[in-house]
Amino acid sequence: MSVHSEAFAKRMAMVGLKPHHRIVLGVSGGPDSMALCVLTAAWKTNNLGNAAQKNEFVDGLLAVVVDHGLRAESKDEAHLVHRRVTSMGLV
């Protein structure tokens, strides 16, 4: 386990979240929300093993794509983010 994932696991424990809990992440595609997706998926799968991975999806982890609508291209970016989180198993 890397230093970042250990620190992330400690933070999740501090707020009372455990790997078996169901979690919904709001994802806009920015670096913060994408990093949160990567860390949360790794935390769940590393702590639950094969039980976290059902088919190609991370069990109990849902990503909701947020389109802020601040730029003309935001709709296209939201579609790209959806494809990215789907490929990570977060649907």
TrEMBL record:
Q: What residue stretches are annotated with the tRNA(Ile)-lysidine/2-thiocytidine synthase N-terminal domain?
A: 23-89
Q: Which UniProt keywords apply?
A: ATP-binding, Ligase, Nucleotide-binding, tRNA processing
- Domain of life of the native organism: Eukaryota
In terms of Pfam families, this protein maps to: ATP_bind_3
Q: Supply the Gene3D superfamilies for this chain.
A: HUPs
GO terms, biological process: tRNA processing
Gene Ontology molecular function, alphabetical: ATP binding; ligase activity, forming carbon-nitrogen bonds
Q: Which InterPro entries match?
A: Rossmann-like_a/b/a_fold, TilS/TtcA_N, tRNA_Ile_lys_synt
- Its protein name is Raspberry3
